[in-house]
């Protein structure tokens, strides 16, 4: 085995970060066993693992579970296939479930290991992926991204001479950023984990894939030293670990990040029409068809629906574009002829819901049927100020957030309307861009692993 029990139980591997808000929880080793019995079991297990041939019954037929009850502590990429085969051979569903759960907890590492992933059956692969979201509740989360042109430390605007003087001086380190999750029973937001300070949050793209939260691109530094980043960070809520994956081919800021059919798509960005996709199995980015000529890629909204990607908005044009991954091509969709400011767009049940801002009214919702290509008006939400809403889908409910409001837009067979619920607004002030997302958290504390 590549690691000793002490190494496996230790912290994250180099280049990875533990979450600071929730901490790590260890998995119980057994029930109703005394200390002496556990020590004896560990000794037998160590002898068993060191034998040539690996996965044999140490104490004779019918006693495999007593011998391997602690095997999950020794699981790694090189041993999980053997552990699964051993469990199936000796009809040990407990060990098989532990092995599936371990591979699910560390799915990205499993996907990137061809010698491991290719030997899994289709049913095994589906089970591992489904376990990512099957062992706990789905929750609404949010992250505040710094404004692209936010005020300086003294509150001055970016164009003032005093602000320019401050920009050339040494900048204070930014305060730590946290992922927060909403607890409906408490009607409250709670911190989940601290974001690594190495992640450039200003202007980055954000989305979830396989129950990982990905942050891509952004702007690193400030003033004359500001540069776009191509780095990609991801957070695993099942292990409470931050890590990095392969950087994008092109540095991007103000991009849109979309997940579709097991791939990530990085779309556009400041002065960019290009697009590229990330395949976790190959840990590689591939160039895709760029946005069509005449589009302006900044300040757009993008969402995946029914196997395609839809992009709308932008500073200059009010268009709806559709990208087909099968054809690697874009085409134009009918638009609603509305020139209102688009706030956000999400997909639910074959429909696109676009949230427009209308002065004096608030948020007006337009619904697009991706099958018939027709638009209809859905509902409106009065707002105290025409501040943009950012939205995320959880079940059949669309959560709509800004710094003053947390609203729910519920879609049923006959209706699609806002609900009169007094939900707690996001608690951290009024600055920055509020980006909601959904994750599935473990029912108990995450198991910290070395991966």
From TrEMBL:
Pfam families: Kelch_1. Keywords: Kelch repeat, Repeat. InterPro entries: Kelch-typ_b-propeller, Kelch/BTB_domain_protein, Kelch_1. Residues 1-39 are annotated as: Disordered. PANTHER family: BTB_2 DOMAIN-CONTAINING PROTEIN, KELCH DOMAIN-CONTAINING PROTEIN 7B. This is Kelch domain-containing protein 7B.
């Amino acid at each position: 085995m590549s690691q000793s029990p002490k190494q496996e139980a230790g912290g994250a591997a180099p280049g990875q970060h533990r979450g600071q808000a929730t901490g790590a929880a260890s998995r119980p080793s057994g029930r109703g066993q005394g200390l002496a019995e556990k020590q004896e079991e560990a000794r037998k297990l160590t002898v068993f693992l060191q034998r040539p041939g690996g996965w044999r019954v140490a104490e004779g037929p019918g006693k495999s579970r007593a011998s391997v009850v602690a095997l999950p502590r020794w699981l790694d990429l090189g041993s999980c296939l053997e552990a699964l085969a051993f469990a199936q051979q000796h009809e040990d569903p407990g060990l098989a479930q532990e092995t599936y759960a371990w591979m699910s907890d560390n799915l990205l590492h499993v996907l990137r290991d061809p010698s491991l992933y290719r030997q899994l059956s289709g049913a095994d692969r589906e089970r591992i992926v489904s376990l990512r979201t099957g062992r706990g509740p789905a929750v609404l989360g949010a992250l505040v991204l710094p404004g692209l042109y936010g005020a300086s430390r003294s509150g001055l605007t970016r164009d003032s001479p005093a602000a320019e003087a401050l920009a050339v001086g040494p900048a204070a380190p930014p305060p730590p950023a946290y992922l927060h999750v909403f607890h409906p029973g408490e009607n409250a937001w709670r911190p989940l984990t601290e974001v690594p300070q190495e992640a450039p949050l200003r202007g980055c793209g954000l989305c979830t894939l396989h129950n990982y939260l990905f942050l891509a691109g952004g702007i690193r530094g400030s003033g004359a030293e500001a540069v776009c980043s191509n780095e990609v960070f991801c957070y695993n809520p099942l292990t409470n670990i931050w890590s990095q994956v392969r950087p994008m081919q092109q540095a991007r800021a103000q991009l849109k990040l979309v997940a579709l059919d097991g791939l990530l798509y990085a779309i556009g960005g400041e002065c960019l029409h290009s697009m590229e996709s990330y395949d976790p199995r190959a840990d590689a980015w591939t160039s895709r068809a760029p946005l069509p000529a005449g589009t302006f890629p900044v300040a757009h909204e993008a969402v995946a629906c029914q196997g395609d990607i839809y992009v709308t908005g932008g500073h200059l044009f009010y268009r709806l574009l559709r990208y087909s991954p099968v054809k690697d091509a874009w085409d134009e969709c009918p638009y609603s002829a509305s020139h209102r400011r688009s706030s956000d767009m999400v997909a639910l049940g074959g429909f696109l819901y676009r949230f427009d801002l209308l002065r004096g009214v608030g948020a007006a919702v337009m619904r697009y049927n991706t099958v018939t290509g027709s638009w209809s008006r859905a509902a409106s939400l009065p707002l105290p100020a025409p501040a943009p809403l950012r939205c995320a889908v959880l079940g059949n409910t669309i959560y709509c957030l800004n710094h003053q409001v947390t609203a729910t837009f519920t879609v049923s067979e006959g209706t699609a309307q806002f609900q009169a619920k007094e939900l707690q607004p996001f608690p951290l002030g009024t600055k920055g861009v509020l980006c909601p997302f959904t994750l599935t958290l473990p029912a108990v504390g995450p198991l910290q692993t070395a991966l």
